[in-house]
Amino acid sequence: MSAQANRVADAVPDYLSNDRTLAAPALRSFFRLAGHWDLRVAEQRRLLGDPPESTFYKWKREQAGGLGRDTLERISYLLGIWKALQILFPDPAQADAWLRKPNTAPLFGGHSALERMLSGNVADLFVVRQYLDAQRG
């Protein structure tokens, strides 16, 4: 194995352990967020990337577990969306309600942001976060 390949191989365990370290706080934050947004179980699972039911309930029960990079990325976007809403709307209830309200912005086509986010594509979470970041300047 070349020296460069050895350096990459040596870095992989550290890289993966960082994902494991983030899993518990990410899950705690997600389930707290799901409570604020009054998300149904099906919506929560969809936003997390449709994990198997048994995995989802294990995450919910233990608030820990192995999360893939996709799931961590999804939670990161969701937390960014929550934070942007808190900045845009000083009233927390108004911020949480915005997610379900129909939106006339071309990005949403009269549908709610949550409907867009529930498409299942991580890119839609990114687009909603980008939209909110642009709105707050």
From TrEMBL:
Q: Tell me which Pfam families the record gives.
A: Xre-like-HTH, Xre_MbcA_ParS_C
- Antitoxin Xre/MbcA/ParS-like toxin-binding domain mapped to chain residues: 84-137
- TM segment ranges: none
InterPro entries with a match to the protein in the record: Xre-like_HTH, Xre/MbcA/ParS-like_toxin-bd
Query: What is the superkingdom listed in this entry's lineage?
Result: Bacteria
- Domain Antitoxin Xre-like helix-turn-helix, chain residue ranges per copy: 21-80
Name of the protein this chain belongs to: Antitoxin Xre/MbcA/ParS toxin-binding domain-containing protein
